[in-house]
Amino acid sequence: MSPVLPPRFYLSGTDTDVGKTVTAAVLCAALDIAYWKPVQAGLDTETDSARVARLAGVKVYPERYRLKRPASPHRAAEDEEICIQPTDFTMPEADQLLVEGAGGLMVPFGPQFWQTDLIQHLDLPVILVSRSTLGTLNHTFLTLEAIRARRLSLHGMILVGPEHHENRTDLQEMGDCPVLAQLPLVDDPDLAFPELVASMKRQLAGV
Fold it and tell me: Looking at the annotation, which residues are catalytic?
């Protein structure tokens, strides 16, 4: 396990399709740690758990909820007359574990149950996946504000996208949050996966 990262953490994002699942797979492979996605919404295509298992080849714990519709978890659960509650979730017994959230940070799991409530329930530090490109400052600063307002533990950020020196500097200095690593946005993550893992290992080792 890299000394840069805690042994167990919650990987969240600033938005849907920010690159969180590929980042999760890269981290799991680079660090040889287990993976758990508590809530999966959408079963028509390869699920996030299946993708991480295929790419990273690590232990993947089954989801607590597998919801059919690719929608916000609270709406997908409503379709199936399910009421998701914090007490439904028990952390897998893994010494080293990446827990991947659903979509962006402020996603509802139920009428009075937000993703941030799940993070508090699991008592995990947050690593935030954010875009590197134009527009990221607003999305990321708002997400950082929400994390701190709810007194969650914030460990750092991972950026996804092309190098943007000014954004990286502003996110670290104005957001008061370290950037732990950055991954490029690639057309074919399957093909580029070995290179992404090697890059992550170098960055986390400080090379």
Answer: 37
